[in-house]
Design a protein that fits this description.
402 residues; mainly alpha; disordered C terminus
């Protein structure tokens, strides 16, 4: 065990660029630190860019719409109702480097698996942190657990993506044989339940159902007895929270319906380039439905509406293109992968489920606008391309590491 850990974290085992990139993903709970590692990784990538050739043709299907999305974001800021506010919002563009840098700095299955496995381990530790908050007084609806993050939605978003990667490893790979993965699965899902975040619950349920349909449809029959068991055993506050998911009398749900109406008004007013990045918050009262519970909201609680209102339908189209390309690439690679020990089918399925869950949750939360979650998603979207970018050098180094 000790020798495995030494090989895993030895600075000599991988190039500096890989470690800088990996650290920016693993420290996303501390955004300032993550930004420093991301910037350093970008400089390292520039240093080595001329020394190696990369098969950019493989990644252009997703990179092109992402570049288009960034360009449209800049255009939207220029023509914004409030250019100064919008131009300041362009600081988020730094995070978009996470996707192309992964393809440059993370090469082959050994490096990719190392990065994914440690990410899952880090998220499991964050989940334990959140559970500790739960058992020391947090966990109520107005005082939810949030781990080390500033908001419980951010915490739940990170847990959800790691959970999808882990579940795929357990079902599509050999992850169930690993004791630490079994522990991680328990603590991550307990923390996800404890966060009381319904959007993540819906996304988890739907994506897990998709996984069962693809891998083991016979187990769908277990849903009914599992639901009955949950109703009998679940604590009353948790059961009430689940039942409230489809209740329009719930204040939070009704507020989201009002936000949908306001967002559509914003899009109709400026369909091409939107109001401008960061402007929705300030101008929401002008479009708010009179019966909306809240006069002010930080965002529209819907990724797709938020993008459309912020930077227009062209940007929304580029976002959907990017996500669609990444999902299709991951599923195609999963569909052609074998089930043997050397297969990466679990990673491809994990990416597919992670991106699907992220976008399902996006119907109820502006998770694309959450930098920490957004950054993890960009890395996850890049994973299939990193696996495709194996390179003889990376594979030989990986074989040497065992």
């Amino acid at each position: 065990m000790k020798q495995k850990l030494v090989r895993l974290f030895s600075p000599r085992s991988e190039p500096a660029g890989f470690w800088l990139y990996a650290l920016h993903v693993w420290t996303v709970f501390g955004l300032a630190i993550s930004n420093l590692f991301l910037t350093a990784a970008a400089f390292q990538a520039l240093r080595r860019s001329g020394s190696r050739k990369y098969p950019w043709r493989q990644v252009k299907s997703a990179l092109l719409p992402l570049v288009l999305f960034i360009a449209l974001l800049v255009c939207s800021a220029v023509v914004s109702y409030e250019p100064r506010t919008s131009l300041l919002e362009l600081r988020q563009i730094l995070s978009y480097l996470t996707f192309p840098l992964a393809f440059v700095l993370v090469r082959g299955r050994v490096q990719t698996r190392k990065l994914v496995d440690v990410l899952i381990g880090v998220v499991a530790l964050l989940a334990i942190f959140g559970l500790a908050q739960f058992f020391t007084g947090s966990g109520q609806i107005f005082n939810r657990i949030r781990g080390p993050f500033s908001h419980y939605m951010t915490f739940a978003g990170i847990l959800l993506i790691a959970d999808m990667l882990l579940i795929a490893q357990m079902i599509c790979g050999k992850g169930w044989q690993s004791w630490w993965r079994r522990i991680a699965l328990v603590v991550i899902n307990l923390a996800l339940l404890g966060s009381l975040t319904r959007s993540s619950w819906v996304a988890l349920g739907l994506t897990f159902t998709v996984l069962l349909i693809l891998r083991a449809p016979r187990y769908l029959a277990a849903y009914l007895p599992a639901a009955v068991l949950f109703i009998i055993l679940a604590p009353v506050p948790l059961l009430h929270r689940v039942i409230s998911i489809g209740d329009l009398a719930d204040t939070s749900n009704y507020d989201r319906v009002c936000m949908v109406e306001a967002g559509l008004k914003m899009i109709r007013e400026r369909p091409l380039f939107g109001l401008g990045p960061g402007v929705v918050r300030a101008r929401y009262p002008l479009y708010r439905h009179p019966s909306a519970p809240r006069a002010l909201v930080p965002h529209l609680h819907n990724t797709f509406l938020q993008i459309g209102a912020d930077s227009g339908l062209l940007s929304l189209g580029a976002y959907l293109w990017f996500m669609g390309a990444a999902l299709c690439f991951a599923y195609r690679r999963y569909d052609t992968a074998s089930d043997d020990d050397d297969s990466d089918a679990d990673l491809f399925m994990g990416v597919f489920l992670g991106l699907a869950a992220f976008n399902i949750a996006g119907f109820f939360e502006n998770n694309w606008g959450d930098t920490e979650v957004h950054r993890i998603v960009l890395f996850v979207a890049a994973v299939p391309f990193c696996l495709a970018n194996r390179g003889q050098e990376a594979d030989r180094e990986g074989a040497a590491l065992g």
